Amino acid sequence: MRFALTLEWDGAPFMGFQRQAHGPSVQQAVEEAVELVTGEEVRLHAAGRTDAGVHALAMRAHFDLSRAFDPFRMAGAINARVSPLPIAVRDCVVVPDDWHARFSCVGRAYEYRIVNRRAPLTLERGKAWRVTRPLDAAAMHDAAQALVGRHDFTTFRSVHCQSASPVKTLDRLAVRREGEHVLIEAAARSFLHHQVRSMVGCLAMVGQGQWTRADLIAALEAKDRRALGLNAPPDGLYFTRADYPPA
Asked: Which of 12, 39, 100, 168 is exposed most, by the fewest CB atoms within 10 A?
């Protein structure tokens, strides 16, 4: 029986989603909670593998059990067992055995949150990137459109990225200001390791007047990680959505 979860978490205490030998992970925490509830050792598969410190609002994941279990009760039981870690099962449903959280996913979306102010962060400390110099969100949005489409994103790819190809199709990269917040939305079928953070870092340089749209295009066309201007910190990055074909 296959269960699909919608997970929310604060990434601060974790080394990322995926199990790590050198620290706690979301995957390990949820797998151990399921084992405590069911007595079965399970393997949790997710739509994305977030880095250390990256948050999730609606990550889809799945695991298999050898016996039936009410999904509503499963969600409550996992939440009880995983506490007090900052992880929540927002939803749990039974899905067909051929549904896969990662391989059935046809689109992923992230949001990056910048707080553009001089004052230190209090309520959003660890949940956003504070940029003290004024940001021109309109200039950032205009420059971002140069990255939309199919490109070789080597410049915006971590040297540790395990993807077979640096070529990706970016469906959306939008920047908007809401008061002191500058929000960047990114959507694609899949992303390279550090791609969103690298794009955001360079867009912040555009917003501060350090780079122009032409500089961003030059960095993209260089296809060289050394051409990257800045890699934004993980604090402000949120996995927001995983898309799947209609059932």
From this structure: 39
Total domain count, the chain: 2
Q: Exactly one of 51, 152, 171, 224 is catalytic; name it.
A: 51
Residue 100 lies in a domain: no
In 3D, which of 172, 170, 186 has the Cα closest to residue 237? 186
- From the number of C-beta atoms within 10 Å of its C-beta (0-12, 13-18, 19+), residue 229 rates as middle
User: Tens of pLDDT along 121-151?
Assistant: 999 999 999 999 999 999 999 999 999 999 9
Domain that holds residue 80: 2-95
Does the global pTM surpass 0.90? Answer: yes
| Angstrom distances, CA of residue 54 to CA of 17, 146, 203, 237 | 9, 25, 19, 5
Contact between 151 and 164 (Cβ < 8 Å): no
Q: Could you give the count of Cα atoms lying within 13 Å of 105 in the half-sphere of its Cβ?
A: 23
Both 43 and 85 in one domain: the answer is yes
Cβ-proximal residues to 210 (8 Å cutoff; 6+ apart), any chain: 229
